[in-house]
Design brief:
3-stranded parallel beta sheet; 16 helices; 46% helix; binds iron/sulfur cluster
Length: 381
Amino acid sequence: MNALCTVHYVLFVTFYIDDKFLLDYNVYMRNITELIDILSERHILSYEEYLEIISNASESQKDYLFSRAEEIRKKIYGTDIYIRGLIEFTNYCKNDCFYCGIRASNKKCERYRLTKEDIISCCSAGYDTGYRTFVLQGGEDPFFSSDDMADLISSIKKQFPDCALTLSFGEYTYDTYKKWKDAGADRYLLRHETADKTHYNKLHPKKMSFDNRIRCLKDLKSLGYQVGCGFMVGSPFQTCEHLAAEMIFLNKFQPDMVGIGPFIVQKDTPFGNMKSGTLEQTLIMLALIRLTLPDVLLPATTALATIDPFGRELGIKAGANVCMPNLSPVSVRKKYALYDNKKSADEEAAEYTQQLSERMRKIGYNIVTDRGDRKHANIEQ
Ligand code: SF4
């Protein structure tokens, strides 16, 4: 019996003696299996209830959590897996996030930028393989003006009108986001990294601001983008309490996509000696997200595939429904080293989509040629 269970036992005895409080106690702390059932039906728990699952679920309760998450994922998305072609077009970044391998201060990072022609030829190759969403991802690179990006966005949308275009290159003003939306962008991914301001300040240098990150997310939403946020699991200084707070944040913000993956150390950063996050905790968070936001787009990320050879499959079985193989030219893939040993070959590479498809088939899923928009399910809370 751990400390928390001891407290529950004492409360139980106390409440049992005076049975007028027994009902209150049952409301206050149900067992974890019951909490998972409630979450599956109502798609919301209290902070304390999320915390209880995150901190104390047993192995069998975790398996139950994953199975309930997979069940609801199948109800909405069937066995479809959406694929996105990821194009990492620049690894220059003006920022210095303490955890990131392409941070401005990392002199060991070999920098590159793709040209517009390079990017469009990546899209072309991806289109021929069946990709109908392209994700343009990069550091915050002032080399590309907002007009350059608007021109690139409209060229891609003109050439591939049946494809969705996702942008993921950081914090900008409302007007810039609007310009890119007007140019045809459909979605924007901007990980908030943590919903706790104090924690955010431990992961980022002083000149970066939690409030501005949240302002960006709100602007993107108000402009009509499909918006993705997300965070690292097991990042330095993160506690179970932070993870429970993430669930409350996600429920309030209601994003269309959530990108989470384990924190993985990059040796040339200030966090080079920290511990990486775990597969297990990431799977728990994926499942909680699926049950809280049943129709959300939820990738089994490259980071998950990096920490475990079956990470991608386990992510799908815990509720994920998206994979994002790499469409960038092979010559630059290793240079986009956000963390150590990042997978960029085999099924993480778009030229191996057939192999990825085989692996998904083995666990009962199938990759589809589809834009893969969010299906808005009628969820009542
Ligand atoms: S996490 Fe993003 S913003 Fe931060 S340094 Fe890396 S690429 Fe730049």
